[in-house]
Design brief:
four-stranded antiparallel sheet; 26 strands; mainly beta; Neuraminidase; 2 helices
């Protein structure tokens, strides 16, 4: 009986540590993520707490957060929050119609406090001012193009968003986009000829492919109308290099010139070895989504410029409750871990998190640490009228 009581206390102790999102390390971890202070931004009744854009930036030494509602709910606009004051600083209206109308808004990024890029699920992206006026409209591809330009059609839409961390990359006048759709069906050898990124010159509007090709991780031949690969990925930009993380691959792929690419192992300790597998597209949507969530897969890859480290999110398999079909539902109970890599892309630690506390899709890196959203509907402190985050800092494993 005494032994059972001891084991019970041990179990409860581990449960408290887990639910608190605290220290879960192994002896070889150099660092782990430790939870600390929280941020809370008030929201009005026209602002939905989940979002499509969540990017941190600095202006004149102050720290801000760029926020855009999920595209299917809330008012389409950018909100700028002052991180230190924890309050709304500025609103940038985005219009669907009229002379400044932007159809199919699907993300954006910050250039400066008076200029923003708005991306869309269309051939266009836009440069707008802080009043939502369109300063310039850029065409990524022409649906009526012929010859070589025809290859761009349905291959590159413009989306900078944080659902999967896909930030804007601007080098001098060149703005880089990840290609989301690359035509199908594809043979395994086709991937090495497909550019993962394209660039657009913000001065001239000229569009070019890069030599950063898809890696040779897609081994099966796709069959049109039956099997296709999910080639979605997240990427992070350090200012010197871009690092790409595919959802079903243990390695990440790094380039400093969008030409030469090096692969580094960034495998979660909680995962078996994984590689992409072509999926069956003949399934109904519900069955397909249920199978996707039952896979081990990676999600965000974030770069922390303040501490010169990377965070790679690793998602555990998740089964939706019977009363919650996966279509349009957030997997609030899904557990995850965060792999921490140094600036040489070496794993230096990994911390695991419970599924009933944080929203892994909503996160950002700030001056003080990595912020994870607390707007999980299973979290006791959930409040739909507030945008809430907990700050996690790197701690040495002693």
């Amino acid at each position: 009986m005494k032994c059972k009581i001891i084991y019970l206390f041990l179990f409860l102790g581990l449960l408290v540590v887990s639910c608190g999102g605290g220290k879960l390390t192994e002896p070889d971890d150099q660092v782990y993520l430790s939870g600390g202070d929280t941020l809370s931004f008030p929201l009005d009744n026209t602002t939905y707490y989940l979002c499509k854009v969540l990017f941190q930036f600095e202006d004149k030494g102050r720290e801000y957060l760029l926020f855009q509602n999920d595209r299917t709910r809330g008012t389409p606009r950018f909100l700028i929050f002052d991180v230190e004051k924890q309050e709304e600083f500025k609103r940038v209206p985005l219009y669907k119609e009229g002379p400044n109308g932007i159809p199919e808004i699907a993300g954006g990024c910050f250039l400066d406090m008076n200029r923003f890029i708005v991306t869309t699920h269309s051939p266009f992206f836009y440069l707008v001012d802080d009043q939502g006026a369109v300063l310039r409209k850029y065409r990524l591809w022409d649906p009526d193009a012929d010859g070589e330009d025809r290859l761009f059609v349905n291959s590159c839409i413009s989306t900078f968003y944080s659902y999967y961390a896909s930030p804007g990359i601007l080098r001098d006048s060149l703005l880089y986009f990840k290609q989301d759709q690359v035509g199908y069906p594809r043979k395994p050898d086709d991937w090495k000829n497909l550019s993962l990124f394209v660039s657009v010159d913000m001065n001239t509007g000229e569009m070019k492919r890069t030599d950063f090709k898809f890696p040779s991780i897609f081994k099966e031949e796709e069959q049109k109308h039956s099997t296709l690969y999910e080639s979605e990925c997240s990427y992070a930009h350090t200012g010197r290099e871009v690092a790409v993380s595919f959802h079903e691959c243990d390695s990440i792929f790094v380039s400093s010139d969008f030409h030469h690419v090096h692969a580094y192992s960034a495998k979660s300790r909680y995962f078996p070895a994984i590689l992409p597998k072509a999926g069956n597209i003949n399934q109904d949507l519900v069955s397909w989504l249920q199978e996707e969530y039952l896979k081990y897969q990676y999600h965000h890859l974030l770069y922390d410029k303040y501490r010169d480290v990377f965070y790679r999110f690793a998602l555990q398999p998740y089964r939706f409750p019977k009363n919650k079909p996966p279509v349009g539902t957030i997997p609030y109970g899904q557990e995850f871990s965060i792999v921490i890599l140094n600036n040489k892309y070496e794993i230096i630690g990994e911390t695991r998190f419970p599924g009933n506390t944080y929203v892994y899709r909503m996160c950002f890196v700030g001056k003080k640490g990595l912020y994870l959203s607390l707007n999980n509907e299973e979290n006791p402190c959930f409040d739909e009228d507030k945008l809430m985050f907990r700050c996690f800092t790197l701690q040495e494993n002693k």
